[in-house]
Amino acid sequence: MTELEYQPVSLKDVLIEMKDIAELMVDLAYSAILFENKEIAREVLNLEESMNQLVYQARIQSILGARRIEEAESMSGMLQVAESAEIISNSASDIAKKILKDVKFPAKLKQALPEAEEVTVHMRVQKSSQIDGKTLGKQKLQSTTGMRIIAIRRDVSWIYDPDRKTRILNGDILIAKGLEAGIDLLSDMTGNEVRAAEDELSDAVVSDLDRAVSLIIEMKNLSELAVGLAYSSLMFDSREVADEVVSLDSRMDDMSYKLDLWVLEASKRISNVEYLRGLLYMSAFAESISNAAKSIVDVIIRDIEIPPVFKKIVRESDEIITKIDVNKKSPLVGKTLKKASLGTVTGMVVLAINSNGNWKYRPGKNDILKAGDIIIAKGRRDGECRLLALAKNRNVKDL
């Protein structure tokens, strides 16, 4: 265990880094499962060491920063957010340890992970690629494809959490996360063939294992939604959004119970039950993330004052959260989310839409955008500019 050492640093900077590292650890943990990659799993454990140092820094700063009871209460809320990020990182490291111990995950799970709302894929950059030799910042991959590069394999080495200055080279293997609609765009930009459309199997027999895997994917989707909404509730001081996070956590408990039953049923028909353990670990992983989200909104529910610096924390992290009104002259008005293609046009993931005072969480592709709607979305800063331009019917350069 590395000895922890205190270094003077602002609590804001510590919390920004904790948020970024926790989200990266989750993405890498799922990637390690999907691609059966122990190197990525080991990087998750390396990041845990960084998180431990940050947790220590956060606790010291919170103690030093409170001089009056009001400051102590506000600081306790910030510390609770920090501890939630720690819970998420601990859950990711637990999954990484399971992978390193050769815990098996069903093939059906790895086949189904790309069907999640935010998918993870890997692609090799070809000689014909239009992005060969260009930096991520120059190419603006996320805001043009909806896919965020979380790691790059170059020869025998890895580049984790690459920044805008990272240059993409021929032969690199990119691991990217984003909306499924962006896979073809990324394939085209990396010089790979676009996937052929696949026919759906309408008469497929759904087994207990199939249902368990589908439930895991839904739990993954809801847990990631819960975290996004949790930060949104603090960002915009919304009790209504906080209540939705609590409701999602309750649904996760019910889903976990169902999963246990289906796994037990499946174990009667599978000779090697070792593969089912991975499903239970995945369920615990998603449930832990949801619990952390609930812990974040507990600050709102208990009416603990959120200091103004919290907005800076969310706004200065790698993945920001924004709230944008749709102008009546916006080209988005009257379009469904599928038709608007916000994921691939802006790289932003829509978490919720408020229409006529009513919230729609996790809106579907057929939901229609109306003038006056309020969109809460997460993504990169340049993607926010594109979404704002569409919503306000302005040129990006004019913002």
UniProtKB/TrEMBL annotation:
<dbReference type="InterPro" id="IPR036721">
    <property type="entry name" value="RCK_C_sf"/>
</dbReference>
<dbReference type="GO" id="GO:0006813">
    <property type="term" value="P:potassium ion transport"/>
</dbReference>
<dbReference type="InterPro" id="IPR050144">
    <property type="entry name" value="AAE_transporter"/>
</dbReference>
<dbReference type="InterPro" id="IPR026022">
    <property type="entry name" value="PhoU_dom"/>
</dbReference>
<dbReference type="InterPro" id="IPR006037">
    <property type="entry name" value="RCK_C"/>
</dbReference>
<dbReference type="InterPro" id="IPR038078">
    <property type="entry name" value="PhoU-like_sf"/>
</dbReference>
<dbReference type="Pfam" id="PF01895">
    <property type="entry name" value="PhoU"/>
</dbReference>
<keyword id="KW-0407">Ion channel</keyword>
<dbReference type="Pfam" id="PF02080">
    <property type="entry name" value="TrkA_C"/>
</dbReference>
<dbReference type="GO" id="GO:0008324">
    <property type="term" value="F:monoatomic cation transmembrane transporter activity"/>
</dbReference>
<keyword id="KW-0406">Ion transport</keyword>
<feature type="domain" description="RCK C-terminal">
    <location>
        <begin position="108"/>
        <end position="192"/>
    </location>
</feature>
<feature type="domain" description="RCK C-terminal">
    <location>
        <begin position="307"/>
        <end position="393"/>
    </location>
</feature>
<keyword id="KW-0813">Transport</keyword>
<protein>
    <submittedName>
        <fullName>Potassium channel protein</fullName>
    </submittedName>
</protein>
